[in-house]
Each structure stands twice: as structure tokens, then as C-alpha cells.
Design a protein that fits this description.
alpha/beta
């Protein structure tokens, strides 16, 4: 996407992704092109909203593991069973600066499963322990990094990748 503004490139990717969905292809095959266009437009607008949230919410992050890829946007989560390399929306969010946690190198999945979750609304538990408590995103980074995860777009001071 060299030389193309990010907005144009992102829109092209989202449009291509929506057009490639099996349902939209089937609608086009059965001459229901207008309905396919409407559904594709709706999907693109929804995904643009997700990208906007990923860019503005302080605790938004993308996480990828063996079970798939998740975009955490506060109270909303967008996910797929595919790795990030096959999830265009997540790839675009990371390219635009959203923090990315790659947990594929983490060997101790039990320890990872027992980590507290990232706070959704800024409230933090005073003594975080276990998966029902919540911590700040930067604290979560420290915890997953200790387990072997890789972090991209790290907002912590003196960390850049």
C-alpha cells in the first residue's frame, strides 16, 4: 500500500473482504447484486466503526493465539478462529497503531488462562488475581510478556516495536 493513504487502503481491504464472503458471492451468483452490495456496504461501515474504536479506546488491543484472533474494544469483542494473518480487520487495526499481543509463543496456557482480564471501563481491582479480576492494559502487557508473549505497538514508556 505504498503511496496510498491509509484510509483508501483500509477501505479497499474492507470492501474486498466483504465481497469475498460466501453469502455475498452466492447473492451475486443468483443475480441479487443489489442485496449483495447493500450487505457489503453495511459490513464495511460496521468494520470502519470497529477501526475507529480501536484507534480511540485506551484499552483496545488485538490478541492472537492458537484459538484465533480477537479485537478487544471495551465491551465489544470481534473475533475469528483464523490467525491474524487471515483477519484483515485485525491486521488493519494493528497497522493503524492498536496494540497487538501475540500469545502463540506462550507455552503455559493454564497460567495464561488464569490471568486477569483487561479493564473495560478504566476500573481496576485493587488486588488482581484470577480471570474475574481486571487490570490496566499496560499491567496486562507485563503479565503476558512474562509468559513469553510478543507485543507490538506497545504504549509503555521506553518500549517500541
Amino acid at each position: 500500500m505504498k503511496g496510498i493513504p491509509m484510509q483508501t487502503g483500509a477501505l479497499r481491504v474492507l470492501r474486498a473482504t466483504a465481497a469475498s464472503w460466501w453469502r455475498h458471492k452466492e447473492l451475486r451468483r443468483t443475480d441479487q447484486t443489489e442485496l449483495a452490495r447493500q450487505l457489503e456496504r453495511k459490513a464495511v461501515l460496521r468494520d470502519l466503526g470497529y477501526l475507529r474504536q480501536a484507534a480511540t479506546l485506551p484499552n483496545a488491543h488485538v490478541i492472537c493465539g492458537e484459538g484465533g484472533t480477537f479485537i478487544h474494544l471495551g465491551w465489544t469483542t470481534v473475533s475469528t478462529f483464523a490467525p491474524i494473518e487471515r483477519f484483515a480487520l485485525a491486521t488493519l487495526a494493528v497497522a493503524r497503531g492498536t496494540s497487538f499481543i501475540d500469545i502463540r509463543p506462550v507455552a503455559d496456557v493454564i497460567a495464561f488462562a488464569n490471568l486477569p482480564r483487561v479493564t473495560r471501563d478504566g476500573s481496576v481491582d485493587p488486588e488482581p488475581c484470577g480471570p474475574v479480576s481486571s487490570v490496566l492494559l499496560t499491567t496486562y502487557f507485563d503479565m503476558v510478556e512474562a509468559l513469553g508473549a510478543r507485543i507490538t505497538n506497545d504504549p509503555r514508556p521506553s518500549r517500541s516495536t
